[in-house]
Amino acid sequence: MKIAIVDYGVGNLFSIYNALHHVGGHPERISDPEELARATGVVVPGVGSFGRCMQRLAPFRRSLIEVLERGTPMLGICVGMQVLFERSEESPEEGFGWVEGRVVRLPDTLALLVPQMGWNELRIKKDAEILDGISDKDRFYFVHSYYCVPQDPSVVAATTDYGLEMTAAISRDNLSAVQFHPEKSGQKGLTILENFVRLTRC
Amino acid sequence: MLARRIIPCLDCDLGVPQGRVVKGIEFKQIRYAGIPWELAYRYYKEGADEIIFLDITASHERRETMVNVIRETAEKVFVPLAVGGGIKTVEDARKIFNAGADKITMNTTALRQPEIITEIADEYGSQACVVAIDAKRRPGREEGRIMVDTPEGECWFECSFYGGREFAGIDAIAWAQKVEELGAGEIMLTSMDRDGTYDGFDIPLTDAVSRKIRIPVIASGGCGNVDHMLEVFQKTRASAALAASIFHYDEQNIGSVKRRLADEGIEMRL
User: Fold this and answer.
1) Is A78 marked active-site?
2) Does this complex have an ipTM over 0.90?
3) What pLDDT shows up at residue A11?
4) The CATH number of domain B5-263 is 3.20.20.70
5) Are residues A18 and B79, on separate chains, in Cβ contact within 8 Å?
6) Left, alpha or beta for B65 (phi > 0: left; psi -120 to 50: alpha)?
7) Staple B223 to which of A124, B7, B193, B243, CB 3.0 to 4.6 Å?
8) Cα separation, A13 vs A7, whole angstroms
């Protein structure tokens, strides 16, 4: 096995599977936490509510910590990014807390629809291998009602503007995460997944 | 800023092995536009922001063909893929998602059993549950209806089912508000008065619905050229514009449509 897609019974994993496969990765859906030890890369997807994702992810906690400690590249996507934080306004359940900070609701102003759904631009904040080949103003497909607020701004790799500037991507050591859906973001999204596949081969 | 979306819609006849994309011209003549996955791939490459397949095959035996069409498309097309037509149960929806679709759209089923909206939103997320509303103008003031001013006078809008063949007295704008409450993530709003006419979107309808709800509205029905898209984006809060025929026969390339809209100041992904 090369890349494990954590399959914890939330949402639809076909898109991410197809996209990783398309860029030359060898993805496999993994529902047994023990099997993550064999992976050279781990993708944590996520849709729906933060609380439900955390409940279902609970059995994976120890295995995912081991993945991080081993230095295996990990990529969180959408709610799979949010669960890395300490807590969310969406649910009482605690997050993993591997990134200090919290997850808050998009501003409730009349001018903006919530969820944000559609293609928004990135603003690159730092060099991160996961964003190789991506430039300011490249657009990605977002679907979310909450966004991440890291305590340490140096983890932020890119932001996007939706009423205010918010975190779109983070990167720290072997951990990367994106609020948008690279698997649904056309060629630019595939570039990000290609970067991830390359990282898993290092 | 968030971009407005351009969405080609492919009406699929699944009575042949790979399926085929069809479009009625002037309400009757059917023209064949191509094989679904090939056309979807072409649109993806041209810059479509999302793709919708609507199964217009009446019978049930063709379900398997749709699964194959989705599977084939999802392997090559990396923008959101929505699929509608004939989804009657959560189990039907599950088959569509398992083949690789990102969203399902429902019209008649949602009207008949609204609880299915909540069930699908709970399992797959709101963003995966699109409700299609086919709205028909009903001129004249009527008690208990949400009235809309149009250049042709005051009217309300009635929902239709079964592709415009049946009506149930339901106010389309009130229904849009209801489906938002039930957990739908998006509304695909088709004007039955404009569908197939190429006269442009129903602006008063699109404006009224997109003002009253806080989930995205996909404007549909009547798009004949890029100026119609410009109009619906300038005059309403529609998040997306849907078109079928104008893209199918090379009358318009999606990329050039989007560049033109961007030149006019509409936020687009180029």
Assistant:
1) yes
2) yes
3) 72
4) yes
5) no
6) alpha
7) B243
8) 8
